[in-house]
C-alpha cells in the first residue's frame, strides 16, 4: 500500500464528492465520476474513472482508468488496452512530479484537462490540444525542452549538462539567445539532470536514429 496515496484520499473526496474510496485486496483506490466543466462552470460532460496508486507515487503520476467505455481503447486516443489513460510522455511526468505531486493537483491539472480534451474530440472529431505519443511525442518533448530542433545542439547541451565544461551563471548562454546562462540553458540542464543522464541519452539516441 502506498501510504502517501492513502493519506490524501479523504481530502480528495471532500473536493470531488462524486469520487469515493474503494478497497480491494488490501488496496485503496478512488472510483466515481469526474465532471468536465466549461469556463462558466457548467458541466459539459462526465467520465467514469478509477484512480490507483503507482509504486513511485508521488514521484510519478497515479494510474487513472476510464471505465465507462466513452473513450476507445487505443493509442490513437491516448488510452491503453487495459483502459488506463496516457496522460503525458514519461519525461514530462518526471519533471511534473519532481517535488512529489498531490492527488488533487494530478486530478485538477492533468486528469481533467486530459478528459476535457477527450470530450472535445468526441464532440468534434479532433483534439483541441493535439499531442503525439510514442517516439514522436518524446521528440517534441525534447524540442520544447531544449528550445531547439537541432540534434547537434541537443548533444552539445547534454554534454554541457553532464560533462566538465562550465559556463558562469552570469555569462551569456551558449545558445546565442543573448540571455544569461542562469536564466536560459542552465534551467534546461537542471531539467535534464532531473530526468537523468542515462534516460536522456537513451531518449536522444532513440529520437535521432
Ligand atoms: Zn540558452
Concise overview:
By secondary structure, the protein is α+β, with helices and mostly antiparallel strands. The chain has seven helices and four strands. The protein has a four-stranded antiparallel β-sheet with strand order 1-2-3-4.
Task: Record the SSE blueprint.
Elements lengths: L2 H13 L3 E6 L2 E11 L5 E10 L10 E4 L23 H7 L6 H22 L9 H13 L4 H12 L22 H11 L1 H12 L1
Antiparallel strand pairs: 1-2, 2-3, 3-4
Helix pairs in contact: 4-7, 5-6, 5-7
If you had to describe this structure to a student in words, what would you say it looks like?
- With 209 residues, this protein is α+β, with helices and mostly antiparallel strands.
- The chain has helices spanning 3-15, 90-96, 103-124, 134-146, 151-162, 185-195, 197-208, and strands at 19-24, 27-37, 43-52, 63-66.
- A 4-stranded antiparallel β-sheet has the order 1-2-3-4.
- Helix 4 packs across helix 7 (197-208).
- The longest helix has 22 residues, at 103-124.
- The mean pLDDT is 95.
- Residues 173, 175, 177, 184-185 line the site of zinc ion.
CATH topology of the largest domain: Ubiquitin Conjugating Enzyme
Order of helices and strands: HEEEEHHHHHH
Strand percentage, roughly?
5-15%
Number of strands: 4
Tell me the Rg in angstroms: 20 Å
Q: Major sheet, described briefly?
A: 4 strands, antiparallel
Q: At the fourth CATH level, what is the homologous superfamily of the largest domain?
A: Ubiquitin Conjugating Enzyme
Number of helices: 7
The poorly predicted ranges are none
Overall tally of domains: 2
| Spatial arrangement of strands, main beta sheet | 1-2-3-4
* Structural class determined from secondary elements: alpha+beta
**Averaged pLDDT:** 95
What's the N-to-C terminus distance?
A: 40 Å
The proportion of residues forming helix, as a percent range, comes to 40-55%
Small-molecule components bound: zinc ion
Amino acid at each position: 500500500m502506498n501510504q502517501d496515496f492513502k493519506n490524501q484520499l479523504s481530502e480528495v473526496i471532500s473536493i470531488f464528492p462524486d469520487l469515493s474510496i474503494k478497497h480491494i485486496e488490501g488496496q485503496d483506490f478512488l472510483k466515481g465520476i469526474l465532471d468536465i466543466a466549461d469556463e462558466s462552470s457548467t458541466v459539459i460532460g462526465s467520465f467514469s474513472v478509477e484512480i490507483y496508486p503507482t509504486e513511485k507515487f508521488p514521484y510519478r503520476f497515479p494510474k487513472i482508468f476510464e471505465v465507462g467505455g466513452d473513450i476507445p481503447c487505443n493509442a490513437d486516443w491516448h488510452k491503453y488496452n487495459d483502459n488506463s489513460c496516457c496522460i503525458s510522455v514519461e519525461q514530462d511526468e518526471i519533471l511534473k512530479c519532481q517535488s512529489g505531486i498531490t492527488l488533487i493537483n494530478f486530478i485538477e491539472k492533468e486528469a481533467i484537462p486530459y478528459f476535457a480534451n477527450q470530450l472535445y474530440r468526441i464532440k468534434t472529431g479532433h483534439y483541441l490540444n493535439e499531442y503525439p505519443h510514442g517516439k514522436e511525442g518524446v521528440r517534441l518533448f525534447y524540442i520544447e525542452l531544449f528550445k531547439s530542433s537541432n540534434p547537434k545542439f541537443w548533444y552539445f547541451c547534454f554534454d554541457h549538462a553532464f560533462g566538465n565544461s562550465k559556463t558562469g551563471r552570469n555569462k551569456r548562454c551558449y545558445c546565442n539567445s543573448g540571455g544569461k546562462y542562469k536564466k536560459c540553458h542552465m534551467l534546461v540542464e537542471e531539467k535534464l539532470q532531473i530526468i537523468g543522464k542515462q534516460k536522456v541519452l537513451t531518449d536522444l539516441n532513440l529520437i535521432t536514429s
